[in-house]
């Protein structure tokens, strides 16, 4: 699995509003890897995902995906990257159904002037089944619960038939049992579809049992490695500046920061 | 009752009302969902300033209206894209700037020109053969562009950043949409008027918004409401001898309030009435 590098950051510095959002990042992501990206607010986690999408470009160094500079990606390359942005509040009255939302995922693969065909409709149905939302095809997106909306947005990314999934805090604003079911869904998709996944989150404990590696960001890449390598008190307290306790639980490590039960 | 259709000016009025009703209501869906409502108002004033300049220098008023409204939407779009100023603030500046120009140009004319005021309130019965040709041509161009880039506009309307991440060329498509809004306003200017055109764009789409949760259906409902109201407005204004633009706007506003009452989104209102 670890032979093919799919994404490469080489000493990449990315500025946002005249200050470095990411500085001197060097990182190889291998095909089929599941990487959790953690770090405090403003540490550049979202910028990291946006640089892979080519929405922001490095002022120094380079970011490459599929052997192509990210800011020069063509549509057919972009179609291979599924992106699930941090979910804002969806207006409950906005006129868009579940099927219409997922179909938008096909638009980048179709290219200009082409219309969705029967095959595209079939792919939408399959993607909705994969996330367990096939019974909600005609439901207004705004009427679903936060967890259901997130499943639909995952289906929209899947319908692109991506090789890479980039997710920005997919469990924020969702109740804990649903958070776990979403993470389990993502983990199953990772295994079944051999996807490369980069997932930004604040919840270290929820993702650590599922990910291959954890990247700890605070403008610079402070640590990258397996959960047991990165999740130690010394490294985490350096970044979060608080008293950090790492204990063990039945399914692995458990991180407690300060008075909070999450990081 | 329909003997009026034997008049050539009525035939022209009807064809113009169908096209204007259709184009305005389709573009209106994008305007409502992308929160571009105010840009419609600003652009129609810019177009009116163009018309007044046309009359002042005795050069095709509609061509100068096209120029004025395109320059307005492009500058406003550029300022907002570059992050210099929010869209509604820059539209606000152009709204009054172009109205000031219109007042200035009217002042410079020295003589009263009733035709200029026709563009302010609209008169579909005065649409000439040349006007109709321009309405048909530009109307077809706008509708064809919507057809051609429908799925891209659909995606951008829902989530512009996602569309950009997915490789949709959002930059020039956003400017194309603004251009189409400007052209829609210009073709409606003579028949609906600079002040009322705004209602033809916003109201049918706002009524359709009440009735459905599907974006595709919103386009269909808006087109039906817009075209239906536009044609009904022409008939009613003829039968009742009322100004056509005002009649159409009152009719479509009535449909809007009806759709609010019947909206599945506000069932509570219906329950309260019952």
Report on this model:
The complex is a heterodimer of chains A (263) and B (274). With 263 residues, chain A is α/β, with parallel strands linked by helices. Chain A has one domain: 3-Layer(aba) Sandwich (Rossmann fold), CATH 3.40.50.300. Chain A contains nine helices and twelve strands. In chain A, strands 6-7-8-3-9-10 form a six-stranded mixed sheet, sandwiched between helices. In chain A, strands 2-1-4-5 form a four-stranded antiparallel sheet, with helices on one face. In chain A, helix 3 packs across helix 4, helix 3 packs parallel to helix 5 and helix 4 crosses helix 5. Chain B is an all-alpha fold and 274 residues long. Chain B has a single domain, classed as ABC transporter involved in vitamin B12 uptake, BtuC, CATH 1.10.3470. In chain B, 82% of the residues lie in helices and 0% in strands. In chain B, helix 2 crosses helix 9 and helix 10 crosses helix 11. The chains are: A alpha/beta (263), B mainly alpha (274). The interface between A and B is medium-sized, with 33 and 26 residues.
User: In oligomeric terms, what are we looking at?
Assistant: heterodimer
Structural class of chain A: alpha/beta
* Number of E-state strands of chain A: 12
Tell me about the largest β-sheet of chain A. 6 strands, mixed
What is the total number of structural domains of chain A?
1
Taking all Cα atoms into account, the compactness measure Rg of chain B is 19 Å
Q: Name the average pLDDT of chain A.
A: 85
Assign the CATH architecture of chain B. Orthogonal Bundle
How many helices of chain A does DSSP assign?
Answer: 9
Q: Using only CA atoms, what is the Rg of chain A? A: 18 Å
Quickly list its features.
heterodimer, A: 263 residues, alpha/beta, Rossmann fold, six-stranded mixed sheet, four-stranded antiparallel sheet, 9 helices, globular, B: 274 residues, mainly alpha, ABC transporter involved in vitamin B12 uptake, BtuC, 13 helices, 0% strand
Helix and strand layout, with pairings?
The complex is a heterodimer of chains A (263) and B (274).
Chain A: E1 5-16, E2 19-30, E3 34-38, H1 45-53, E4 60-65, E5 68-69, H2 75-78, E6 81-84, H3 98-110, H4 118-130, H5 146-158, E7 164-168, H6 176-192, E8 196-200, H7 204-207, E9 213-218, E10 220-225, H8 227-230, H9 233-240, E11 244-249, E12 252-257
Parallel strand pairs in A: 3-8, 3-9, 6-7, 7-8
Antiparallel strand pairs in A: 1-2, 1-4, 4-5, 9-10, 11-12
Helix pairs in contact in A: 3-4, 3-5, 4-5
Chain B: H1 8-33, H2 37-57, H3 61-81, H4 87-109, H5 114-121, H6 129-148, H7 150-158, H8 160-165, H9 170-192, H10 197-211, H11 215-240, H12 244-262, H13 267-273
Helix pairs in contact in B: 1-6, 1-9, 1-10, 1-11, 2-3, 2-4, 2-9, 2-10, 3-4, 3-9, 5-9, 6-9, 9-10, 10-11, 10-12, 11-12
């Amino acid at each position: 699995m670890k032979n093919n590098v799919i994404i490469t950051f080489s000493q990449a510095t990315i500025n946002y509003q005249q200050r470095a959002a990411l500085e001197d990042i060097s990182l190889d992501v291998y095909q089929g890897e599941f990487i959790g990206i953690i770090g405090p607010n403003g540490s550049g986690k979202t910028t990291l995902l946006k640089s892979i999408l080519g929405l922001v470009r490095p002022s120094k160094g380079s970011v490459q995906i599929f052997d192509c500079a990210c800011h020069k990606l063509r549509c057919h390359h972009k179609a291979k990257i599924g992106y699930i942005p941090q979910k804002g509040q969806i207006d409950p009255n906005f006129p868009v159904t579940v099927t219409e939302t997922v179909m938008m995922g096909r638009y980048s693969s179709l290219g200009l002037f082409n219309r969705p065909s029967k095959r595209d409709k079939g792919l939408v149905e399959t993607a909705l089944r994969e996330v367990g939302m096939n019974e909600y095809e005609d439901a207004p997106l705004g009427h679903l619960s936060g967890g259901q909306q997130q499943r639909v947005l995952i289906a929209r990314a899947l319908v692109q038939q991506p090789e890479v999934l980039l997710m920005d805090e997919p469990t924020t604003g969702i109740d804990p049992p649903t958070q776990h079911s979403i993470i389990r869904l993502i983990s199953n998709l990772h295994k079944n579809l051999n996807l490369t996944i980069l997932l930004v989150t604040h919840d270290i404990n929820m993702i650590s049992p599922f990910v291959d590696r954890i990247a700890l960001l605070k403008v610079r890449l402070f640590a990258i490695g397996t959960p047991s390598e990165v999740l130690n008190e010394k490294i985490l307290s350096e970044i979060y500046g608080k008293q950090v306790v790492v204990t063990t639980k039945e399914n692995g490590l458990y991180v407690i920061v300060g008075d909070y039960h999450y990081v | 009752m329909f003997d009026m259709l034997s008049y050539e000016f009525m035939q022209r009025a009807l064809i113009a009302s169908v096209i204007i009703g259709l184009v305005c209501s389709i573009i209106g869906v994008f305007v409502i969902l992308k929160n571009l409502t105010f840009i419609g108002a600003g652009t129609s004033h810019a177009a009116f300033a163009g018309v007044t300049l046309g009359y002042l220098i005795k050069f095709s008023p509609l061509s100068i209206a096209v120029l004025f409204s395109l320059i307005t939407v492009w500058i406003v779009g550029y300022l907002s894209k570059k992050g210099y100023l929010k869209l509604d603030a820059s539209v606000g500046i152009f709204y009054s700037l172009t109205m000031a120009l219109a007042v200035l140009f009217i002042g410079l004319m020295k003589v009263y020109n009733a035709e200029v005021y026709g563009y302010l309130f609209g008169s579909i019965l005065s649409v000439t053969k040349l006007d109709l040709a321009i309405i048909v041509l530009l109307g077809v161009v706008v509708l064809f562009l919507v057809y051609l880039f429908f799925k891209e506009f659909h995606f951008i309307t829902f989530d512009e950043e996602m569309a950009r991440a997915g490789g949709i060329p959002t930059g020039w498509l956003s400017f194309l949409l603004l251009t189409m809004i400007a052209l829609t306003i210009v073709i409606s200017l003579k028949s609906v008027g600079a002040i009322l055109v705004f209602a033809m764009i916003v109201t049918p789409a706002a009524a359709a918004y009440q009735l459905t949760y599907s974006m595709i259906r919103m386009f269909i409902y808006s087109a039906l409401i817009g075209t239906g109201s536009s044609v009904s407005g022409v008939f009613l204004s003829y039968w009742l001898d009322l100004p056509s633009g005002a009649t159409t706007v009152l009719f479509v506003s009535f449909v809007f309030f009806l759709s609010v009452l019947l909206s599945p989104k506000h069932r509570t209102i219906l329950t309260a009435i019952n």
